[in-house]
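User: Hi! Is it possible to get a structure for several chains at once, not just one? Here's what I have:
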Amino acid sequence: MMTEYSSKQRVFDICFMLFFIVLTSVEIYLAMNGYSPADFAETYVVFTLIVCGIVECILPIMRITKKFICPYWFLLFITSVPVLHSSTLFLGFYKTFKYWDIFAHTFASIVVGTVVFLALAIIEHYTTRVHLGSVPVMMFLAFIMSWGFGVIWEMYESGYDYLFNDAAMSYSMFDTCRDLLISDLLGCTLTDVVIYLIIRKYSLKAVVESMNLSGFMVAAGKKWDKLTMDDYQGSYLHREKPGQ
Amino acid sequence: MGSKKINVALFVISLLCLIISTYMWKEIMMATSATMVLFYVICYIRRSDMDLLKPRLCLVQIVLMAIGMLSLWNEIDTIASIQVDGFLVGPCMGLCGIIAIEAIILLSDVRLDRLMYSLMGLFSCMLPCIFMGATIYYPRILQYDTVLTIPEMEAAESMLLNYYINGMFYFTVGFSVLSLIVVNHILVKKKVRLITCDNVKEW
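Assistant: Yes, the chains can be modeled jointly so their relative placement is included. Here is the combined structure:
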């Protein structure tokens, strides 16, 4: 079963992408002309807006080129992070609101944690080469990976400041600690709790199949498993896993 | 000397390292040696014998632990020594990550391929760095304005945070990643595994 992708959806995706491009372009223009209320260096704001703008366009482009046709809720969920970060940076929320930084990091952790868990669940579901065990083990692995992703982000923040001799991203070492040990920890924990509740109500299989990735992922799973079409007997539902 | 005796010896060394580092309160060494001890215990419980670990790789781990411990012996208060410390301890942390993943594989029915193994190890080796930060951050927010005055706390915090976060965190993470890639590359190329685990079949 191939995932359907109509011309109507394509038009919608193009509009979606154009919206991000226009939004980012306007913000960049305003920031370069000193209209941004953010109390940051202009180069930093513009640099961040460009990076976020690129990230926002990745998933729509992948949909348009039929490389990865994910559901719209997933697309909105992922792109909400760069949109939220870039827009609120432009509007100066990080300096205006005391706890905005904590909220932004927590929200980003929730999104990253969810994406990591879904990625693991999809890999588990569509391949035989990798077996990630039970749901609690997968949740634990997702927790480790999403928290570790927070470390990578902190390294990026520090790396930016080091390269550009600035203090825009990593305000202090204490800020790094707070991001990792409060915001990211909270985000990862919340994600695991919500995932647990969802999996308990529905099944892991139902959650993965709601992504409607079967056409794309069956092919990718077979490629990962290094199986030919002849080797691949039946659907992914009939594969054997250890302990089954 | 048989590999069983070597493993028993390494277990004893790990245990000694854990005791000494706990006595000296050297968090990094505590984490490293505790991981090793835990790993041996898991192996023992799971397979009922100690002849599971590849002695040479464990020896590397022990040597790195010893280097790290020696580097932590002196009080570190200069940027140069902080960097050196990070360089030395980084590979230890990288191996910790690998061992953590091996422990997860042993404890569950997880079966990973080379890519997933590398990815999991990469992320898990960052966790000790977070825990290092936690040893500073949580006491700070719990004791703020009660045990120390704010200026005293800020002075101590500045020194400690620079030491732990700047020195350890970034250098350690950077070199953990590097060591993980190198070690994993060697493991894969030479088809050597840290443990004789049936779960890691496909590379």
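The radius of gyration of chain B is 18 Å. Chain B touches chain A through 34 residues (CB under 8 Å).

User: Great, thank you!
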